[in-house]
């Protein structure tokens, strides 16, 4: 189960969607533009998986045409905290990691 959860919260599209939904509630096409270049099919699958795991809520409004909004749940917001911490760590160490990669690549060349 742990591996399954980590696969969901660690894939690039789930991370991007959770981070965007941390800013606001969005409709599908708004979210698709923000998470570009994600395909419609991949966004749909990602949202379904996040909803299945209780990280995203999907609200259908009875209008014509129907309006569907996506938002983070409490569990999704708690994941957002972790993702923001991880992004901060990556930003703080990006230069060092770049240097390490360059050194490694030179040794391997």
What does this structure look like?
- This protein is of the alpha+beta class and 109 residues long.
- It has a single domain (2-108), classed as Orthogonal Bundle (Arc Repressor Mutant, subunit A).
- The chain is built from 5 helices and 3 strands; from the N terminus they run ααβααββα.
- It has helices at residues 2-10, 12-21, 28-34, 40-52, 74-108; strands at residues 26-27, 56-61, 67-72.
- A 3-stranded antiparallel β-sheet has the order 1-3-2.
- The chain is elongated and about 60 Å long.
- The termini are far apart.
- Residues 1-98 form the HTH hxlR-type domain.
- Pfam families: HxlR.
- It comes from Streptomyces adustus.
Quick recap:
The protein is of the alpha+beta class.
Task: Describe the secondary-structure layout.
Elements: H1 2-10, H2 12-21, E1 26-27, H3 28-34, H4 40-52, E2 56-61, E3 67-72, H5 74-108
Antiparallel strand pairs: 1-3, 2-3
The first-level CATH class is given as Mainly Alpha
| Helix content, binned percent | 55-70%
* CATH architecture label name: Orthogonal Bundle
Tell me the number of strands: 3
| Rg, Å, rounded | 17 Å
**Cα separation of the termini:** 40 Å
CATH fold node name: Arc Repressor Mutant, subunit A
**What shape does the CA trace take?**
elongated
Number of helices: 5
* Percent of residues in β-strands: 5-15%
Low-confidence stretches: none
CATH fourth-tier homologous superfamily: Winged helix-like DNA-binding domain superfamily/Winged helix DNA-binding domain
- What profile does the largest beta sheet have? 3 strands, antiparallel
- What's the average pLDDT? 95
């Amino acid at each position: 189960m742990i591996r399954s959860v980590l696969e969901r919260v660690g894939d690039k599209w789930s991370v991007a969607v959770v981070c965007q939904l941390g800013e606001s509630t969005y409709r599908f096409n708004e979210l698709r533009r923000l998470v570009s270049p994600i395909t419609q099919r991949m966004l749909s699958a990602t949202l379904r998986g996040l909803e299945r795991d209780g990280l995203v809520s999907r609200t259908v409004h009875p209008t014509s045409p129907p309006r569907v909004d996506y938002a983070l749940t409490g569990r999704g917001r708690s994941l957002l905290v972790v993702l923001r911490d991880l992004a901060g760590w990556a930003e703080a160490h990006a230069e060092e990691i770049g240097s390490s990669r360059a050194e490694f690549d030179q040794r391997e060349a």
